[in-house]
Structure formats: structure tokens, C-alpha cells
């Protein structure tokens, strides 16, 4: 994840813009979408600091979270990947972890890759 911290107001504004676009049935502006995703990844990293799980939300961001063994080379043993829409829905409580996994909207591998106990976040 980027070292640049997203302030709470900017993150909430981006989330509101993404929600408004979804309510109108239109795609969100790319900048707002990216900021919303990165803000929620930042909140997850604050809630569960660590380096044992890599959460990927292409093309906008990734974060290493959850305490445990650190990986230093190659693909990490615990990876969670999803599209931006799914990530925002999970992080805001619009979608439950088990539902997302069962529907194939989340790809998770590794013994620490279950983020269900960390979601939703409270943006």
C-alpha cells in the first residue's frame, strides 16, 4: 500500500461519491474509486497490522495485514484478491465474507486468508 495517508474526510467523501454513482447505476469516477479502495485498505491495515496476508484490489491497491510470519520473496503464502466493487461492499458491510467467497467474488489462499472476522470496517 502507498505510504501516503488518506485523511478520513477525503476517504469518506470518496466512499460517498462511489455510493452515489452506484445508486444512479453509473460507474464511479476513477479517482474517487481508487481513493475509496485505498482508504478502506488503509483502515484494514490499521485494524489488523502485520505482514502475513496480502490483500490485493487491482488495479487500485494492495496492503499487507495480519500478524504472523513475514514473507520476503515471491508470492506470499496468504493472498486475498478481489475486484474494487467487491472490496468496497465487504469493507462497508454491504456484502458478507462468506457470501463473497461462496459466489467466487473473492480469491483467497493460505491458512490466514480468511478476513471474515475483520470485516466490515467502520469507515
From TrEMBL:
Signal peptide range in chain numbering: none
Spans through the membrane: none
Record domain Bacterial SCP orthologue: where: 30-121
Pfam families: SCP_3 (PF17844)
UniProt cross-references to Gene3D superfamilies, sorted A to Z: 3.30.1050.40
Database matches in InterPro entries: SCP2_sterol-bd_dom_sf (IPR036527), SCP_3 (IPR041629)
Domain of life: Bacteria
Protein name as catalogued: Bacterial SCP orthologue domain-containing protein
Gene source species: Microbacterium album
Taxonomic lineage of the native organism: Bacteria, Bacillati, Actinomycetota, Actinomycetes, Micrococcales
Amino acid at each position: 500500500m502507498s505510504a501516503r495517508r488518506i485523511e478520513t474526510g477525503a476517504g469518506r467523501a470518496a466512499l460517498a461519491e462511489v455510493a452515489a454513482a452506484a445508486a444512479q447505476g453509473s460507474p464511479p469516477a476513477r479517482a474517487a474509486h481508487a481513493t475509496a479502495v485505498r482508504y478502506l485498505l488503509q483502515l484494514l491495515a490499521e485494524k489488523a497490522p502485520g505482514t502475513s496476508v496480502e490483500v490485493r484490489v487491482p488495479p487500485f491497491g494492495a496492503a499487507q495485514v495480519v500478524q504472523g510470519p513475514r514473507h520476503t520473496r515471491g508470492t506470499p503464502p496468504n493472498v486475498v484478491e478481489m475486484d474494487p466493487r467487491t472490496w468496497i461492499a465487504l469493507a462497508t458491510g454491504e456484502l458478507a465474507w462468506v457470501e463473497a467467497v461462496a459466489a467466487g467474488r473473492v480469491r483467497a489462499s493460505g491458512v490466514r486468508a480468511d478476513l471474515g472476522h475483520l470485516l466490515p470496517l467502520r469507515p
